[in-house]
Amino acid sequence: MKKLLISLLLIMIIPLTGCTKLPKNDYFENTTIDPHDDALDLFKSYGKEIAEYLDETYPSFNSDYDIIDDENYYVVNKYKREYLRHELINYNLTEQRDYLRFSDLWYVTTELEQAYSFGLRDCYDLTEGETCTSLYVEDYKLEFQKEGSDILFVFSHKRSGIEINVEFYFYKVGNRLGLELTYKELNTDTNEYSKISNTKYLEGEYEESHSYELVAVDAENEIHIASSYYNIATNDFYQLKQSSSSNVYSYFSGEAKEYYRLTQQTDSVVDMFTNFTYIEYSNDKKLVQYSDFGKYYWVNLSEIEGWDRLVKDTISSFYDVFYGDDLLPGLRANVEFNNGEFVYFEYEDLTERAPNEVLSLSIFNLEAKYNQSYFSEKEVYMIEQYLGIMSSIGFTNTYEENLQEIVDLVE
Description:
37% strand; 19 strands; 19-stranded antiparallel beta sheet; alpha+beta
C-alpha cells in the first residue's frame, strides 16, 4: 500500500514539474527560476563596475571649485592683473579631451539606480519573468531574468510626457563584464521615439554605441544618427555622425595622440568636404587645434618657451605677454582657470587661412613647430583615409541603411 501511494505521488509531481513555464528572452536560455534578491544584488554589483569604468575613463569637466579637494590643487587668485608663469601651477590638472565628453553608458548610472531602488522597495515579491508595477509611483514597471552570471532587467517609467524604456543585459566572458544597454525615449503626445540608443561594452576591450535622435531642423523633425567605437586597450576612438545632409567623421589615435574630424556635405550634386579639424594632444591637454581648413587656429602657450609674465589689458579680457621686460609684439593671450590653468592664443579669420608666421608664432618672437605644410599633410591624410578608418570598425552604412536599423530596433 505504501509503495502504491509513493507511485501515485510521483505520477502527480512529474507532470507538475514539467509544466513549469520558464521565461524567455533574446539574450540567453533560462533553465531556472532565481530569487528576486539574488538578481537585484547582482544587478547593483554590475552597475557599480560600470560606474567605476566611466569614472576612470571619461573626463569630468568640472570647474576648479569641484577639484579644490585634489591634494595637488593650489588656489590661484583669478582677479590679479599680473601673473608670473610659474604661478599658474595647476596646469597638470588640465583636462581637454572633448572627444570623450559623453557615453551612452551614463544611462546605467542614472536609470539603474532608479530601477534598483524601485525593485527593492516595491517589488519585494517579484517572480522572475513577471512584471512589477508600482503601487506608489505611476507608470514604473520592472521585470528581470537571471541565469548564472547572466541577468536581464527591463525597466520603464514616465517623466514629463516622455516614456523611458531601458534594457540592461549583463553577462560575463571569463572574469570580464559585458553589457548590452538599449535605451528608448517615447514622446507620449506624438507617439514618436525622440531617442533610441544601443550600447555594447566588454571590459578591457571595447565600447560601441549607436544612437538615433529626433532633432528639429527648419521647423521639421529629422533623425540624426551617431555611431561611436572606443577601443579600451589602444585608446583609439572612432565616431560617425550622420544627418540627411552631412556625414561627420571623427578619429582619435591613441598612439599618435592626434584627433581628426572631417565634415562631408552629402545633399549637393557632388559630395564635398566643408570642414576639417586637427587637434594634437599631450596626455589630456591640447597642444594645438587647426579648424575650418586653417581659418581657426589655437595653440597652447603653456607648452611654448620664450615668455614668463602676463599683464591683463585694462579694457579687454586679453593679457599682454612679456619675456622679462620685453613685450611680445601683437600677442594677445587668454588664461583659462577651469580644470587647472593654461595660457593659450587663438586666431580666427572668416575668409583666409592663418599665415605661416602666425602658425609658427614667429610673428610674436616665439617658436612653434607648426606651419601650413604641417597641417596640409594632416588634411590630406584624413581625406584619403577616412573611409578606411571607419570601415576598420565596421562603420560603412549609409544614412538610409542606418534609418532601417532604427525600424528594426523599435519593432
